[in-house]
Structure formats: structure tokens, C-alpha cells
Design goal:
The structure holds 2 protein chains of 2 kinds. Chain A is of the alpha+beta class. Chain A has 17 helices and 14 strands. Chain A has helices at 2-21, 87-94, 104-113, 138-150, 156-173, 177-188, 199-204, 207-217, 233-244, 320-331, 337-344, 376-392, 397-414, 418-430, 437-446, 450-460, 472-482, and strands at residues 46-49, 55-60, 66-73, 117-122, 127-134, 223-229, 276-283, 290-298, 303-308, 311-316, 352-358, 363-371, 464-470, 488-492. In chain B, a hairpin with a 5-residue loop joins β1 and β2 (42-47).
Chain lengths: 507, 449
Amino acid sequence: MKNGKWKMENTLKLFLMLCVLSGGVFAQTTEPKPSAPKTVKIPAVKETKLKNGLTIVVVERKNVPLVTVQMLIKAGAQGESKKQAGLANITASLLSKGTKTRSATQIAEEMEFLGADLTSAVNWNSSVVSVNVMSDKIEKAFGVIADTILNPAFSQSEIDLYKSQSLDGLKYNLTQPGFLTNYVASVFSYKEHPANGTPESIESLVRADIVKFHGDKFLPENSVLVFVGDITLKSATDLADKYLAGWESGKKNEIARRIGVLTRIGGTDNSQIPIVNRILVVDLPNSGQASVSFAKHLTNGRVACSPVNRILSCQPNASYFPALALNSLLGGGYSSRLNQEIRIKRGLTYGAGSSFSWRDQNSNFGTRTQTKNESAAEVAELVVAELKKLSEGDIPEAELNPRRLVLTGGFGRNLETNQGLAAALADLYSFRLPADTLNTFMTSVMAVNDKQIKQFAAENFNSGDIIIVGDYSVFKDDLAKRFPNMDIEVIKADELDITKENLRKAN
Amino acid sequence: MRNFSKITLLLIFAFCLSLSAIGQVKVTPMNIKQRTLGNGMKIVSLQDNSSPTVAIHVWYDVGGKNDPAGRSGFAHMFEHMMFKSTLNMPGEKLDRLTEDVGGFNNASTAEDWTNYYEVVPSNHLEVLLWAEADRMQNLNVDEANFASERLVVQEEYRQGVLAQPYGRLFQYLDSLSFQKHPYKRGVIGNLEELAAATTKDANEFYKTFYRPDNAVLIVVGDFDQKQFDAWTDKYFAAIKKPDSKIPRVTEIEPDWTAERRYMQTAPIVPFPAAAITYLAPPSKSADIPALRLAELILSGGESSRLYREMVRNQKIAQDASFNADIRVDKGLLYFFGIASESGTSEQLEKAFLAELKKIQDAPVSAQELEKAKNQLITQALRQRENNDGKAIVIERAIAYQGDPLAVNSDIQKLQAVTPADIQRVMKQYFTAKNRVVIYYNQAKEEESK
């Protein structure tokens, strides 16, 4: 590389000389300082209830003549068994595929004629139907949404079509290393199941399952209707009253979700236990890249709840904000440690990051990155080293504060759009958190310190799994060399069946 | 503004009238300010103090089509280098100035342009203007950064092209369709030509295209106009405009004269696919609004023609779309389909051509057209929800129509489109000789090694 260096210096000199000759280099050399910051205004949230128990949440905002409506049902993939994986998803997806009086095509036609886009999404503990529409067309659109929630037909032909589309979609996704990693981790590491189902579970779902899931879970007292945008509390309530007053509540008591005791940081220090317990490889021959992940199920949940006057009252769990800050430091955003080490310093990936998926009483943590098959083992080693550094190394304030600001800045930006704000509210309500949690988010993040993060890492990042999906023949030797004392479990992608105990298809 | 002239009132009346056809909601015009500095750099700004953030975009008139010969993917790879060190900033300083204060930055390279953008709390605007001015004139391309960023771009290629089942097919759309125009190389390029690039190429490219008279600064958000103008004078006006001419792409894609057909394969293709491309008119053509509406009528949502026919009725496709990929020079109009478990490439082609014939033979209904217009208005409103969204809309108007103010007339142009206009463009551009058909299937075992 001597030659390369010589070339660089000369090119640089020549370049500078050209600038001087052309009269360039008038650059300001001192960086101007920012002026005083302004505060981000958190919009006012209004709340009311219909007689049938449906909660209505409204944020009035008139910057554009649009309204976002989100109907949150507090039931998601958590409410289905592993054998029925995908049931919540198929139920929510089929709502718009026909009602007692409208066909699937009519619903699509009516909504799209209004310029409204109707979507549904299923999370672990909630299902959300949402629509974005011009404010002068909200009534027509709302009438259709209400009909789909109250009167879905779940016709056999739509169930069959949806199942075949889901199976096609899964077959497609299961050729992608990143998707396969999460798919396997859901069972292998998190002891759950994929919310979109498995080929085996989707195949087995029948109409009665769907009708029952809808009947049991889609109840007004189990739902929250969020409006954000160019609409008032009064007109929103009038709309809900007109179209949803006939929605009958179930048994009067609140749908019980198992929510137990308060969880706190300050448990056992597990830092002496090795970070990696198992290595799983899903062999995908000819894969264009390998996906490398660390996955760990944690007992730290999103909320801490206790009954107050027989009603469950929840607040963010004490470890929630330290966990968010930890993630921001490790793998949230471009300059986080994983991306620094794997992409910026070494050029081994286009991007590396990490995230938590929150449940009430626990969470799933995962890192993610894709690299050429040749460097899969090296990347796995780098990921483990970064996890280790969290509990063992220093977290200087100069590094931590920017990572707090990444969180608060992203939070503020997200609230700028109707959709972003509505989703943030739906998320809070799905965890039984009060709407004013929005107002305390920024101060809670700013209060996290380095000790809390280190403690969180020491308690939680041990006995996790490394999952690699890629062309095993390419990285087999290197992986054995870099993780010499570990058993490596290998499953061929086309033999994978995550509904089986050993994750393999029966012969 | 207290005394409206009669003409103004009349114009407003006409404007409202044209809007009433599609409902009461209207898209508020943007009060955009424009000026050009002595060195040729254009400054476009839109003050909006409703949220304490500001979006800053620097748009350069250089893209994948300007890749040097034998250096496919270079413009994009160079975009990555713009985050490395300058005379006044160490590498990744842009991240310190944005991410570290609660903002974000990114950049993208298209066939026709490259943009660099940030959204930051508005009290950081001046610092970002300084930084953008600095990297416009003082970039320092060093060997180590260049080598490491090349690896990153190669991983980007693997992730987007090789590790995606249909990644290669998207490459083929350009490489097999265009015969002469540099669009045929594709923005991401290929691993070999990325490997051949040198720092010398980078310095040459920088000097050639990164200059004030090839750039537009677009700022939307919370600032004071007078203060902003003073800052742009302070940081950008002194940047010297080189005497050399900016080289432009002169190749013109010749009219296609006969249908071409290709059968491609790749190692992992879960379902057969097919694409049919047609050469599109350039972005400034008056036919674009009609093509945009045709795009929605054919594939905007589950009530669209392709979805209803191919996904729901015939059940031969899991994905069937029509896309107007409009570019500054002639781009592509293309059908793209992925078969369902029971479908084939042949069936997809046949169904696409049948739908094409329908839209050519009979005008679309008034109802269908109104639906497409409502979809576009809603889309336009959603794009205008925040500062960055508005900056993007303005930037695209500059890129494709050469005029930021086009954002205020685009919607009226779409509203003026008639069923006859759509029928005419569908007949004009979608001819058999102006067509490339690509089938894409799983390679046989021995081919994939």
C-alpha cells in the first residue's frame, strides 16, 4: 500500500494547488455555534368514552386537511396458540375483505375512491386498523371502517384466497436471510411464534377459528379509537356514536391480560455467565449474503402495573428507558456502536443495528446485520465483543448524551405527522399507558445514566443465541475457529419447520 | 394584500372551481422564495415556523447516468465519500452535527441526481449551512476511507441485488431495456467496476460536478427569512464557480424498433416473474400527468385493474403492478409481476397485455379517473405534512421539471387530465415495437454454481 499512499499525497497536493490556482479555499474554518434550543410542543390529547366502553382519543391539528384514524384492538398474536400462528393476522386482514352488505372489491373501491388507504397491522399484543383520509371525506370512510369491524363476513372464498396469498408471501420471504433469522429466532430464542404464521399453521386455520377470535377479542371495551388531524373531539365522538354505538360489549369485566407484579432493575448480576450460549446456523446455499444476529429473550417488560380500585393502572417499567438508551448506544441509528464497528470502521456491512420488541412483562432483544458469507463469523465475533463492552467498558457522557438526543429527536419528529402521532398513541394505549406518557418521554430519556445501562447489560446480555443464516459452506471453518468451544447447530433451510420441537421437518 | 384586483379574484374563483370537481379539500400553495447567488448556486426556501425543526437539502445535478466510463456505480459510491473528512471537518462530522443533536442525515443517488439532506432542531440551521458549504468545496478523499467505503457499497449491492430474490430482475429492467443511454448501467453499478474505482476518479468527479452552479440548496422549516438569506450569502456566495463547463449526458436513447425478449435466471427465485418495459417520454413531457393517472388506475390499490384481474380473479399473480418510472431523459413504463404458486411468466405476460389492450380500446370511466385523482391529492397532502416532506416535493420538482414552483401547479395539471388523454398516451407509448419482455426464473442446479 506504499504506492497507494504516495498517490494519495500527490493527488491531494495537486488538488489543493488547483483550488488555490482557481482562487477557491475561502472556506470558513470555524464552525458556527447553535443558538438556544426551542422546546418541542407535545400536542394536547383529549379522551372520552362511549357508553359501550369504547375509548375515544382525539388530537386536533389543522396543518393539512387530513385525518388519520386508528382503531386499536388490545389483542394480537399473543392471543393465539403456536399451532394457530397467524390467526390474529388473518382475522385483521380479512376485516376489509367483505361484510354482511359489502364485498371485498366494493370496500376497496369505496375506500380508494375516497383516496383513503385502509391498512391493518398485528403486533404481539394488539391489532390496529388504520386509515388516512381527506377531512371532508372522513364520514364516508368511517362508515366503511365501522362496518368492517362490526360485520365482517369472513367468507370461505376470501379465507382461501388470503391463505394462498400468505403462503406465497411466506415462501418468498423465507428465501431472504434477514427474514429467516427473525422467523427462526421467534421460536428458537424467544419461545414465541411468528405473528404472520408459518406455512404449517396457516394451512391449518379454519373459518371457525377466525370467527371465534373476532367474537372474543373485537369488543368495544377492549378497543381504543384514535383520531389525529383536522377533526374536533365533538365531530369524532359524533361519528363514533353514529356508527359504533351498536357495537355490543362482551362480558362487562375488562379482558384480562396476564399482567403481574412490578419489575425493577436491580436483580442478579449475570455478567460472569458467557454472552453466547448457543449458535444456530440456517444453511441457505447460494444466498447472496449472510444475516448475523444475537437474540435474547429478556424478563424486562415495557410496563409495571398494579390494581388501583380494581382497575389495572400502568406506568413505564423502571428499566424501560435505560433499555431504550442502551439500544440507542449499541444499535439504534447510524452512529451507534455496532454500525461504527462493523460498517464505518471495517466496511463489513451496509448497516448494523439492534432493537427491542416489547411485551407487557418481557421483551425480545435482537441485533441484526447482513454481510458477505465470507465475513459472517467475523461479524458474529464483533457483535459479541460489543455486547461484552456494554457491561465491562466505560460509557462516557460525551458518547451517551448524543444517543439520548437521537431518541428524543426521533420521538419529536415522529409526532410531526398525523400517522406518526396516532401510532405513538395507539402504542401507549396498547400497553395501558396513559396518554400523558407522551409528555414525560423526553425527560425520562434524558435522566438515564451510564450505570443503569451497564447494569441492564450485565443482568441481561448473557446466555443468548447467535443465529446465522447464509451459505454455510463458505463460513463453516471460520466459524468453528472463532468459536472453538461451542457446538454449532446447523439446519438446512429447506428442512426447516419451526413448529417442530427440533425445528426440522419430519422425514 | 388588502386590495385584491378583480383578476386575482377571478383567478381564485377559477382555482376553487377546478378544485370543487374533486371535493372541498385543497392543497395550499407553497410560498416558495428563490434566488440565485453570483456563483450560479440556486437557493430555494420555504419558511414554516409551526414546528421547531428545519429540513436542509442540497441537490446536485449529477447522478448514476454521469458515472465515468468503466466505473458503473461511481456517482453513488462518491455520495458515500461526501460523509468523510474535509479541510475543516473530520470524517463523519455530519453525523455529529445532526444525529448527535437529535436530527438525522442521509443522501441518495438516482439516475439523474444526488441529494444530501438533514433534518435538525432549527437552532442548528446555521451550523449545517456551514457544513454543506464546506463539503461542497473542501472534500478530502483519502485512500483508507475510499477503500473501506467501497466495501460498504459492495455490501449494499449484495444486500439490495444478490440477497433479494428479485434484486437482479430490477437490474435487468435497465440493463436489458436501454440500448444506448447510460441509464442502462443502473445506479448501483456492479462489483467489478466498483472494485476498479480509484481516489483519482473521486477527485476528478468531485471537481467536475460538485460546484455551486451545479447545486440547489432547499431549506424548509423554522427560520427567519432575512437571517437565512444572510447565512446563505456568508457561507455559499464565496464558493468559486469553476471556469470549466459541466459535462452533460448527450446520448439519446434511440426509438426502439422491434420487440426484444429475454429469459433470465438467478440462483434463488421462489416464483416466476415477468416484466414488460416500454420507453417513456422525458419528465418534462406534457403527457406525464396522464401517465401518472394511468399508473393508479392500473395498479393503485386493491380496486385497481391489475390487482382485481390478476391477483383476485385469475389468481396467477401475487404481485402485479404498472409503474411510470419517469426520468429526466426517456425513462421506463413497465409492468412487473411475480407469479403466484400456480402462475407462470407466460401467463403474467398474457394478462398484462390483455389489460393493456382494454385500457387502449376503451376510455377509462369517469369514476375510475376521479378515484385516481383523489388518491393523488391525498398523497400530495400527506407529502406536505412536515418540513422534510415539503422539501422532498420541492426537490423533485426541481429535478424533473426544472422549476420548484411546479409544486403549486402539478395538482391542477392532474385534475385537467381526461379519459381521452389517458387513452391517447396508452396507445402512443405502448406499442409492440416499443417493448422489451423479460422472463425471470429459478436457475437449474448446475447454472447457479
